[in-house]
Specification:
Number of helices: 1
Radius of gyration: 16 Å
Structural class: alpha+beta
Number of strands: 3
Helix content: 25-40%
Distance between the termini: 52 Å
Strand content: 15-25%
Largest sheet: 3 strands, antiparallel
């Protein structure tokens, strides 16, 4: 599996989190991956689930990079 990538919002955090369960897993013959938002799948193969996980992480990072923080107007 590819090296775990962190979300852009996680890069500032110094603490390392130990993953207690694999990110990509098999349930009743179908493959899934877990995210903060929940389980995503099913996929036919472990490779497909891993590829989709990598694409999902890239999409989330891109979304976060394009979000502008809202700052109040102070006069």
């Amino acid at each position: 599996m590819s090296e775990q990538q962190k979300r852009q919002s996680d890069l500032d955090q110094d603490q390392e989190w130990a993953r207690t369960q694999p990110r990509v897993f098999n349930r009743e013959g179908d493959w899934y991956f877990s995210s903060r938002e929940g389980e995503i799948g099913p996929f036919e193969t472990q490779g497909e689930a891993t590829e989709q996980l990598d694409a999902y992480v890239m999409l989330i990072d891109l979304k976060e990079e394009n979000e502008q923080p809202v700052t109040p107007d102070i006069d």
